[in-house]
Design goal:
Elements lengths: L8 H7 L11 E2 L14 H8 L11 E2 L7 H12 L19 H7 L6 E3 L7 E3 L10
Length: 137
């Protein structure tokens, strides 16, 4: 599970140098801005440019958040994609401008406009707008 923003960029650049069986990797994203695919402010655009386009992870094993569908539809579709996955081997958390991880903000009940989307399958995805002016899934 990948973090977005600038905090993990050096890690993604370093991963290019690994000698690993890339065909065994599956990539999921922790959040995404509701912008068109390829937009420079999307996390998946940054990760693809720095890392994923330079290694041989099969395209069908890179699972971007479909945030271009809008916050509600994107969250619901991504939640369905996560059904049945076991625990992730690695989860990266980035730090926002206020130096607090998003999941910590959720846990601590920070003052953020958050809506939960739960398609009755035990998976909660959150929609918020801390990445103004866009929504975030």
């Amino acid at each position: 599970m990948l973090a977005g923003g600038s905090t993990p960029r050096p890690i993604y650049a370093w991963l290019v140098e690994l000698d690993t069986p890339w065909n065994q990797w599956h990539i999921h994203f922790g959040d995404e801005r509701c912008l068109p695919i390829g937009h420079p402010e999307r996390n998946d655009t940054m990760v693809r440019e720095i890392w994923l386009d330079k290694v041989s992870i099969p395209v069908n094993q890179i699972h971007a958040v479909p945030a271009q569908l809008g916050p509600n539809a994107g969250a619901k579709r991504y939640a369905h994609e996560l059904i049945g996955l076991g625990p992730f081997d690695l989860t990266l958390l980035g730090l926002g401008e206020e130096k607090r991880a998003t999941l910590t903000q959720l846990r601590d009940g920070a003052d953020m406009p958050i809506r939960s989307v739960n398609p009755a399958n035990g998976i909660d995805l959150f929609i918020d707008s801390y990445a103004a002016p866009t929504d975030l899934v």
